[in-house]
Hints:
Order of helices and strands: HHHHHEEEHEHEHEHHEHEHEH
Mean pLDDT: 91
Radius of gyration: 19 Å
Oligomer: single chain
Number of strands: 9
Strand content: 5-15%
Bound molecules: iron/sulfur cluster
Structural class: alpha/beta
Largest sheet: 7 strands, parallel
Amino acid sequence: MATLLDNTATISPSEAIKAGAADRALMRHPEKAKKADSPILRKPDWIRVKAPGSPVFKETSKIMRDNNLVTVCEEAGCPNIGECWSKKHATMMIMGDTCTRACAFCNIKTGMPNLLDVKEPYNVGQSVKQLDLNHVVITSVDRDDLEDGGAQHFVEVIQAIREASPRTTIEVLTPDFLRKEGAVEAVVLAKPDVFNHNLETVPSKYLKVRPGARYFHSLRVLQQVKEIDPKMFTKSGIMVGLGEERHEVLQVMDDMRAADIDFMTIGQYLQPTRKHIAISRFVTPDEFKSFERMAKVKGFLMVASSPLTRSSFHAGEDFDELRKNRLSKMGM
Ligand code: SF4
């Protein structure tokens, strides 16, 4: 079940800045306070990222601030932010910065969130217009406290983007909506171009990595999307380096194909703080290539598999390829 946390345990951003790194981690994740520390492993040479700070990076940052928007790029401490924001590719995280779940891998703040910002759909639409995006990825925190899990807010954001920037293609990266009736249907009927929901890990690791979720329910979310709209592109991803076996990753690929998922992403798990679940190992670039080959053989239209792959990394370019691959499969 989802974990709803006491809001009194969360802190303001200014308090967080004053605190040291270790305290900051505990303040953002009060539920992890009693967990034993896991030392953070030194990253191998193949995990190198572009430093943030280019003029376009600053422009992207300003647009996010001016429109009062939260991004998963910042909240999750994504290593790709230097590269993505230098191309104006920011993934906006709607419905606040506080998540009602407490996944062991995730650096998003946990606690009881605030009320929804009714101006947010408009602000997201305006940001997409100002950034002049061909493709945008919209994600959210889990909002298990809301009756519809936040589905209607997703719908309003999609509509606001369509209005402000009609040529932009829209990818949603949603929570599982905690089996709330009608939630998946509502979002699909708003017609995003891509419906993404991450499985995150192999089933045997769910209890440790994603205790508030159920593997087959997440799979069912994506299967449902295809049942409602067979033409909608579906996408899902996992992290590796959490102790999973190779045969388990191959089984996830089979499960995803059985649910008719078009696009699979596989990336290396990176431990955000000492209180988060430890990395079991760094998967080598060759192993990622091998996963990519296997996934292609299993029939995905598109596969992104590399140490720094994240579900929204290069999402615009990948969407173009996804469309081309479907047309070529149909012989067009
Ligand atoms: S990979 Fe996704 S979350 Fe990370 S910086 Fe790029 S857009 Fe943001």
